[in-house]
Amino acid sequence: MRSLAGLTSHRFSPLSRWQLDRLGRPLTLGLAPALLLAALALGGAWAVVLVVIALPLTVSSALGRPILSRMATRDALTGLGDRAALTGSLDQMLARPGGAASAVAAMVLEIDGFKQLEQRHDRALIEDLLRVVGERLQAGSRHDDVLARLDGACFGLALSSSRRLDLEAAIQLGQRLQEVVADPVERGGTKVRVTISLGFALAARLNRPGGTELLHAATLALIEAQRGDPGSIRCYSEAMRHRVRIRNGLVDEAAAALDRGDVAAHFQPQISLRDGRLTGVEALARWNHPRRGLISPAEFLPVMEQAGLMGRLGEVMVQDGLNALRLWDAAGFEVPQVAINFSQVELADPRLVDRLAWELDRFDLRPGRLAVEVLETVVAHRIEDVVVRNLSGLSGLGCQLDLDDFGTGHAAITSIRRFSIQRIKIDRSFVSRIDEDAEQQKMVSAILTMAERLGLETLAEGVETQGERDMLTSLGCDHAQGFGIGRPMPRPEAEAWMRARPAPPVALATRHAV
Q1: Rounded-to-integer distance, Cα 316 and Cα 351, Å
Q2: Separation CA 482–CA 437 (nearest Å)
Q3: How far apart are CA 250 and CA 305, in angstroms?
Q4: Calpha distance 201→209 (Å, rounded)
Q5: What was the pLDDT predicted at 99?
Q6: In degrees rounded to 5, what are phi and psi of residue 193?
Q7: What one-character-per-residue DSSP string does 295-347 give?
Q8: Those residues with Cβ within 8 angstroms of residue 20's Cβ, 6 or more apart along the chain or in another chain
Q9: Which of 195, 235, 296, 310 has CB atoms 3.0–4.6 Å from 231's, for a disulfide?
Q10: In whole angstroms, what is the distance from residue 290 CA to residue 38 CA?
């Protein structure tokens, strides 16, 4: 009889990883026990070989599947459960007898502004941040609650209680979780503060939900929360599902609406607070829907972003704005410039400067007639990328750069100087009731003093009353816009508004001649 060594060397060769992978599925389905039976029947050297193969496979088939199952439902970065684990936990909670489903809820939480955090910090710090946030959420949860990381900066929580879980209790828990993540996370001398927005859904408010349905409802509530201020909390309602259906329908209609001209610029006047002279207009996108009428920008701008149409929308706004200036020049209206908001998508387009130069030349307008409005959050943490090059290129071209919503972000003086900002627009939150609020007056006065020292012009947004206008004038603000001066209007209505105004002083009018 051949020796075992000889049999092994001549009849068998090591299996490749690919071959092992191919064998894995049938072995776990019953081949290992079959090999053991074959070994008993054959005896001799074959029995030894088959037993050596079959025993580990039998053990792995008995013990490996639970281990692999646990691995498959764990998030590798945080060690928390994943979406499948959370859904399973919700299913188990909802299946408990005795009306326990009324004490079950799902909560979905997401770090606010996570994309911007990823742009500003390296991967190692971001991963540390996610781990720490996961640990803090786990520490802030109750004993029977189940926490999972769903994806990215999004976490989910399965909530269960021995008694009915109501709206107030869920909100209190959400606020506590917001508090536990509020302390800064520090790594390598860098401190990062985060806030979380969250949405939750109470099983008692849904009709016999499963875990998947309850988690989806909580996700819809989170989407609603993220449409508000950072750190918002929303509870699911059936109206949210209706709004999502409407938004999804608008996504399908958005491209056609742009092509048909249903989305167009409306123009809001900007005036000098010193003498009331028209100093420009801001072009604001408006969607005139054939069935719903005018749709709020707060509703359709996220739709445009979701549909990947922000660049196309920007092209429409530039063409509408520059064409309006050309027509007003021809009609004898003196409109010094048009201001247009540029999204981060547009500012990241490497062709932006050349495209705007071509458009200005096509409409025979000086670059100074175009004011490019950039959100403060866009320039706050930019270092060296295409956005920096574009802003520098636009400034070099001769366009005016405005910093929009000043005071709501984190732009430093160095950012203002670096990007050659020429005017700051004071956010409406600082302007509202400024004639009645001494603290508002102090804050705006400080902004105006800084702007004067830096040689910047200032424009107050959201001016609605004569009292606000008078106070801003006395504090030394240069320009203003708002409903108290003029609402955003289609071009013909803007022309009627201009006709109804008294003629400006001649000396000031000639300074802005084309």
Answers
A1: 16
A2: 19
A3: 12
A4: 11
A5: 60
A6: -105, 140
A7: EPHHHHHHHHHHTT-HHHHHHHHHHHHHHHHHHHHHHT-----EEEE--HHHH
A8: none
A9: 195
A10: 76
CA distance 243 to 298: 13
Distance CA 29, CA 18 (A): 18
Structural element, H or E, at residue 132: helix 123-140
Kindly state the helix (H) or strand (E) to which residue 430 belongs, with its residue range.
helix 428-431
Angstrom CA distances, 506 to 275, 277, 443, 502, stand at 12, 11, 35, 12
Q: Which of 298, 297, 333 is nearest to 317 (CA)?
A: 297
pLDDT at 358: 96
Which strand (E) or helix (H) includes residue 156? strand 154-160
* Structure token pair of residue 377: 């959050």
Q: Which two tokens stand for residue 32?
A: 């290992």
Q: How far is CA 5 from CA 45, 53, 56, 385, in A?
A: 10, 16, 21, 65
Distance of alpha carbon 35 from alpha carbon 32, whole angstroms: 5
- Contact (CB, 8 A) for 23 and 15: yes
Helices (H), 181-296: 211-226, 238-260
Asked if residues 447 and 407 have their Cβ atoms less than 8 Å apart, the reply is yes
Q: Name which of 98, 195, 90, 187 is nearest 153 in CA terms.
A: 195
Structural tokens at position 310: 């922000």
List beta partners, residue 5. Answer: none
Q: What is the pLDDT of residue 408?
A: 62
- Per DSSP, 271 falls in state E
397 Cβ contact partners less than 8 Å away, ≥ 6 residues apart: 353, 356, 357, 367
Provide the sign of the torsion angle of the four alpha carbons 450, 456, 457, 461, taken in this order: negative
Residues in the chain: 514
Across the beta sheet with 146-151, the strand order is 146-151, 154-160, 104-111, 196-202, 233-235
Quote the CA–CA distance of 79 and 308 in Å, as a whole number: 34
Asked if 235 contacts 169 with a C-beta cutoff of 8 angstroms, the reply is no
* Residues lower than pLDDT 50 in the chain: 1-41, 45-71, 506-514
Q: Where are the beta strands (DSSP E) in 84-153?
A: 104-111, 146-151
pLDDT computed for residue 468 by the predictor: 95
Instruction: State the amino acid at position 417 in one-letter form.
Output: R
Question: pTM of the prediction?
Answer: 0.61
Token readout for 275 is 């003498």
The C-alpha torsion from 87 through 90 and 92 to 94, rounded to 10°, is -140
